[in-house]
Amino acid sequence: MTLPPATPDLAVLDLLVSVADTGSLGAAARRHGMTQPAASMRISALERRLRLRLLDRGPTGSTLTAPGRAVVDQARTVLAAAATFNETVTALHAAEIPRLRIAASKTIADHRVPQWLADLRAIRPDVVVSLEVGNTAQVEVLVRAGEADIGFVEGPHPPPGLGGRVLGADELVVVVGPTHPWAARTHPVSLRELAATPLLWRESGSGTRETVEQILGAYGPPAPPAAELGSAVAIVAAARGGSAPAVLSTLVAAPELSTGTLHQVALADGAVLTRQFRAIWHRGNPPAGAAELLVRCAAGP
Fold it and tell me: Is the pTM above the cut of 0.70?
């Protein structure tokens, strides 16, 4: 389809509609970032092109002629169609942008994901990444529901019904504040004693909590929690104040241990508490493309 020679461009139609909306050629010119003489010249050129008088210009403003009103009505339809066209093109471009939806437990999100994403960006800078942060149970829910392409969790076991890959192990340490009696203790704490001691816990669904509860469960029913707190930051603050011991990832505890605001408590018999970091995914949608590259970045060389 070839446009007739008299077909005006969209910009001058938009200017004419602004004159109709504002009732003033000067106000329309300001809306479009041009001088009034420049706007007047553009409208005059449109009138010559269409061979119609569109405006009655007077000292109090500009008013549309009858042909001008008819042209404005059609211009609004054309401009609305052009806006829809542009929105469609923008949506098509957005659909072509590769996207990766990640869900990660809090410790991994804070201490591991930033480096993994930097490594991924070095390989695939075109990928747009979104990250949801929660505890291990919440991440599993997002992956099962298909709301995350891949998840990163910690815990002693692979989540049932999901695919996954172990990425490595993370050591857990028992810590207390400087004023807690265990800070001055000269002999190690046994796992049996730790199990019988009220601890500062994360909320149910935390991978750290699940790991520690499973280990200590072999030594008798665990003591009631000293407190259940929703973040590692809150647990660190409570432990720092000496209220109770806590079991934390070395990733979380390291800064506090280095400054002496927390003290590590030795465990008897060389016991070591560890948990696994793993990538998880829906079995019907194993990682591919950017998701597979991210798993490789997380697993390391």
Answer: no
29 phi and psi angles, rounded to 5 deg: -60, -45
CATH for 271: 3.40.190.290
Report pLDDT for 199. Answer: 96
CB 107 within 8 A of CB 208: yes
**288 falls within a domain:** yes
| Digit-coded pLDDT (tens) for 37-76 | 999 999 999 999 999 999 988 777 788 999 999 999 999 9
- From 94, 121, 136, the end of a domain falls on 94
3-class DSSP string for 56-97? EEECCEEEECHHHHHHHHHHHHHHHHHHHHHHHHHHHHHHHC
What is the C-alpha end-to-end distance of the chain, expressed in Å? Answer: 58
Q: Are residues 71 and 115 in the same domain?
A: no
Nearest alpha-carbon partner for 249 in 197, 214, 203, 209: 209
